[in-house]
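Quick check before the chapter quiz. The format below is the same one you will see on the exam, so make sure you can read both the input and the output lines.
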Amino acid sequence: MAYGLRQKAENRNLNSEKVGIKTFKSIYNYTPKTTEDWNAMQAITYSGSAREKDSDNDLLSDEMELQYGTNPNKADTDGDGHKDGEEILGGYNPKGSGNLK
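Here is the expected output.
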C-alpha cells in the first residue's frame, strides 16, 4: 500500500502526520506500532485521499448510511451492541437480526 510513499525527513509534514495517526486510530482502534502500521499511516497521510463524513464513527459513511437505511447519528442503529459498519462488513443486518440482504 505504501510503496513509493516513504518520505524523506525534509519532505515530512509532522502536523499532517499527527492527523494521519488520528485517522489511523479511528480506522483500526489503536495507534501505529509495527513498520507495516507506520507505512499504512504514511499512506493515509500522503495519499491525498480524504475520508467521507462519518457522523457517528461506526465505520460507515453518512452517504452509505442513507443507502443502507441506517441512522447516520447512531453508531448502532439496531442497538445490538455492534456498530453498523462492523455488521455490514460481517454480512449482518445493521437494522435488525439476520444476514444482510
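If your answer matched, good. Residues 54 and 62 are 5 Å apart (CA to CA).
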